[in-house]
Here is the input.
Amino acid sequence: MRKNIVAGNWKMNNNLQEGLTLAKELEAALKGKKVNCDVIIGTPFIHLASVAAIIDTKLIGVSAQNCADKASGAYTGEVSAAMVASTGANYVILGHSERRTYYGETNATLKEKVSLALANGLTPIFCIGEVLNERNAGKHFEVVETQIREGLFNLSAEDFRKIILAYEPVWAIGTGVTATSDQAQEMHAFIRNTLVAKYGEAVANDTSILYGGSCNASNAKELFSNPDVDGGLIGGASLGVDKFMPIVEAF
Ligand code: PGA
Here is the structure.
């Protein structure tokens, strides 16, 4: 059975000390509480090792927000999947729209990153989603299908089972404009059907598909009540325990 997951994406926020404090506060809030989802935090690279060392990573999974598309070598400034894994992190967010838009990441480079992440035992949280013009032109399904096909469909069914998907309509990220519950469910069902066609019902039904884009304490419950929405990738609202915990508890 697929898991419910609430994953925070801190983006480029919090210095090391602030990040450690936030991680500890979240751990304290979760300790002894029975929640109905897995909880993950996606921190900047420099936080990973320290965060993984001071929290119970069975209670809170630790994720990078990116990794290199090369295994190792002369790539100044890059961080490899093996390095991420060596910190104690277990997840890596790949293909976030901010990476695609500001840093020119393509489906082809993402395919390499996914392979390296899997080869190093990391679970990719693979982001997909259309920009507003694409939705207005009625191209959103086509765009999302292409991102999935070109980024992931080289994987065997066995490897695909290790992927978490995050549908994040770009027009909803950080804008305060959330996709409606119906828009989210419609796209998530489309994504699941795309997976059925490629990998069959069993794999598709076991894949967690998260929603991201201005998800917060007031809309999480409605979004997560949809049959194909298995949780959220949370940006702004993951930066404070008071905002993040109600989303975790929406399940
Ligand atoms: P947001 O970001 O929740 O601030 O809209 C979500 C994301 O980009 O993952």
Notes: The chain has twelve helices and eight strands. The radius of gyration is 17 Å. Residues 9, 168, 173-174, 212-215, 233-237 surround 2-phosphoglycolic acid (CB under 6 Å). The mean pLDDT is 97.
